[in-house]
């Protein structure tokens, strides 16, 4: 039966949203049917999050109408949406690690019996929700220590205990590896078979082709295109998202010099996450690090930049042993890390863009120990313009899209003019257009003689930006591939040793 012959469970008509004089959604129409996955795509700032927040009751529309299962729908809060059967699973997991799975599933709405918390009933219902997703795990277990994939499934189980008939999944695979992603996809197929409708938001376009039944593309607050199938060529999707022909995603990689800037010799983690790592990176080179989740990539670059302790080995800069013992050691030596979790480790969300850019650069901005607001704003404005941040200096960083937050993190560190820049998952959760500008920035750094190390779970990305790639497997250095020898197959062969 085609969608035109069925009745949608959710229908949006001419949804608009304004903040003061600025309209961010321009009359959006959307239908979602039972048992289907609708991919909602667009660049950061396209309006996806605002629309999702309206559907899930977090934000109220300025005008327009919604119907849910044939009746008028206007949830005043996320709880009202959940009570109606609409749940949203956010990219940032919000589970409480010190509570059990059952307690997390029912947090804020504990089941009661005779004036007491009915733990047996909570555990039984939580277990039923977990089994529905194919997760055989005790609901009494603490969330602490569970894999990201399992935590993601617990978030979904949390919505299913309220008999959710529509799930909004926001970047559900952003922190997952390939095997975990396929597990999630299998559970999505199970939910579809049970009649659950799903709105799926992701910047990983290859997985959109695997999981979606229809694709809706947004741009600048409007729905600009809809595809009635999921297996649409990626180039076609990208061009719809950015509104122009995209000839090439990755820029030309510049030639590195013969001068070695950074050397890692026999580096071994104190926690056992990696051991005996050896490599050298040249001035102006982009050096990629690939491997499966758990291979030790992030732990390695954190150790190189002084954030994690080591039990052996050394880090050398221009032939001199510097082996940072803290991040400040690394920073003083001209080595900076752009971390994988920009919200927790990269920016202070409730501080302004100008403040975020200024914090690592106070020595340059402040005069005689005094910080002048005008000088801070002038300094920040220079880098906001240079890095194309779509925001004002006095705007809170938490109000920015993921891509613009990442640009703020890059701006604050690159303002220090470092010799070595380490980028851990530089485009995670970032749209195609913003990715392209970050790739250009990486190549600009290399052309200026900066040594760049890029850690990425995205094989296409690490292949597209790197002149050489080191592959890690189970904490070991599996091999280093030159660009002409590196491809998906050669990397995966080493990563699965």
UniProtKB/TrEMBL annotation:
Which Gene Ontology MF annotations are present?
ATP binding
Q: Which CDD domains match?
A: ABC_Carb_Monos_I (cd03216), ABC_Carb_Monos_II (cd03215)
Q: Which Pfam families match?
A: ABC_tran
PROSITE patterns from the UniProt entry = ABC_TRANSPORTER_1, ABC_TRANSPORTER_2
- InterPro entries, alphabetically? AAA+_ATPase, ABC_carbohydrate_import_ATPase, ABC_transporter-like_ATP-bd, ABC_transporter-like_CS, P-loop_NTPase
SUPFAM superfamilies the record matches: P-loop containing nucleoside triphosphate hydrolases (SSF52540)
Q: Which PANTHER family match?
A: CARBOHYDRATE TRANSPORT ATP-BINDING PROTEIN MG119-RELATED, D-ALLOSE IMPORT ATP-BINDING PROTEIN ALSA-RELATED
Entry protein name? Sugar ABC transporter ATP-binding protein
